[in-house]
Fold:
Amino acid sequence: MVNVIMCVGNRDGGDDAIGPYIADKLKKTKHDFAVLDCGTVPENFTADVKKYNPNYVIIIDAVEMNLKPGEIRIMRGDKISEMHISTHGIPLSILMKYLKQYVNQVILIGIQPVKMTGNITRPVKNAANELIEIIKNGKTDIIQIL
Structure:
């Protein structure tokens, strides 16, 4: 059984590109999970998730949480609909509910963006690099829950 990380975001959308950025970096490292670069249509990757039959799925995206730029949080299910999540085909809350039919746990990790145009900003890229190390070391339990 391989666990799955779904990286979500628009490569041309400023800090919204943080998901694909993380996917690119994780794919270059040795680890025991599948990394999916889902772009702006994570719902198109549900068959891939089911194929892996994971115990858990981590979804990573830029999330407006009204925090300092680059802050990383695990989003509780009841908070997801309250926060503005970067624009995708369907709300991530619906995707998460769907995936929970097939996996034991679905976790959304958000990084507070600065802007959704241009290039990824320095605080968000720094946070992404920190999150990559957290994931590689299996330490997601140290991330604060919002």
User: Anything to note?
Assistant: DSSP finds five helices and six strands in the chain. Strands lie at 3-8, 33-39, 56-64, 72-75, 84-85, 105-111. Helices lie at 18-27, 46-52, 77-80, 92-99, 122-136.
